[in-house]
Amino acid sequence: MTICLVDTSIFCNVLEVPNRCQDKDAVLDGLREKIEAGWSLLLPVAAIIEAGNHIAQVADGRQRRGVAERFVEQVRMALNGEAPWVVTPLPEKEVWLAWLNEFPEHAMREVGIGDLTIIKEFERQCTLHSMRRVLIWSLDGDLDGYDRKPG
Predict the structure, then answer these.
(1) CATH architecture assignment, domain 3-148
(2) φ/ψ of residue 80, rounded to 5
(3) Do 58 and 64 form a contact (C-beta atoms < 8 A)?
(4) 3-state secondary structure (DSSP) of residue 101
């Protein structure tokens, strides 16, 4: 079974965030395929926060309200085990401190803290599930290459 981390770009398409959902049909088709194939879908906390920030920047108030309500519904469902994905756990303080030590080098490669936390969750999942495929599902060129197939 495949473990798939859902990036912000995918979540924004599912939520239909204005100006952030240009690939909605392909994403929804991909989501359907992954669910039917029995993939384990994980929604990183960073993707939730980043999507929420994108929603708050929607210019039209009526659209912003509508997508904010869809966002709340989807995150609530994920937290309650009623969505196709599960929210990843928050890291412990020591883990955050280690990531912060690495952040300046990642920032120099134009990798933000949100992407860094998703990459670190990818690495954690690879360690936890050495015999399973683990990937980041993203429309972002910096993240879509993370795909570890079992040896």
Answers:
(1) 3-Layer(aba) Sandwich (3.40)
(2) -95, 5
(3) yes
(4) helix
